[in-house]
Amino acid sequence: MRNLTAMLTLAAATLITTTAAQAASTNLVKNGDFELTSNGTSKQLNEGTTARPDRTYLTDWTSKGYNFVLNGNTIDKTGDSSIALALWGPNSYSGNGPKNGLGVSPTGGNVLAADWDYFAGPVSQQISGLVVGEAYTLSFSYGAAQQVGFRGDNPINYWEVSLGGDKQQTASLANVSQGFTGWQQTSMTFTATSSNELLSFMAKGGPSGAPPFMLLDGVSLVSAVPEPSTWGMLLGGLGILAFLARRRKAGAV
Ligand SMILES: [Ca+2]
Known about the structure:
The chain is an alpha+beta fold. The chain is built from three helices and twelve strands, in the order αββββαββββββββα. The strands form three sheets. A five-stranded antiparallel sheet has the order 3-6-11-8-9, with no helix packed on it. The model has no long low-confidence stretch (mean pLDDT about 90). The site of calcium ion has 10 residues, from strand 5.
């Protein structure tokens, strides 16, 4: 009998923990890690429908402005032509760059880099499958760095993020000349007003003059409430716990 109780308790706990994990697992953002590209990385992102051999294409996203996808492992040493870009980091200029800690993001691989001072423009993606009135959690990693070859402090750097008509912004990061702010993790909550909405990231900051770059990686948008099917499993787990509690009470009497 004691074994049965232990088994049921374990089953209930498993149901509750797995359903909680499942509810948070469906990412509605495609290519939120920026790993899918064509025509390489580090070149400026293509705009519009005109194919350009000197541009990088970022799958599932639309870019307008001076935006790039950079590989985290070569982020500070690939700007070797007029159309490619590198940021100040440990390896800039043959390993003699500033030891500012710039490197791979928490989720690794490619990152998005956007200039807020020079032809700034949004990077966006149409999100479908939203439930009107439902809350969604948007999470991502971000930071600020500076383009190799340029100097000057950037005291204000942040992302303006919108989903449909709802516009929010991250905390601002202060960056020093040739510096890197480190990767920060943030999340914000949006409520859907349509089943299809535009998710958009716009680099912002000030004052102008010292070429800044906002960095972004690991973008995910998940429902903030468990889905109906997972509610059922959650209630199943809670039901087992209630049954056990009732039986213990009966046993005590
Ligand atoms: Ca990535």
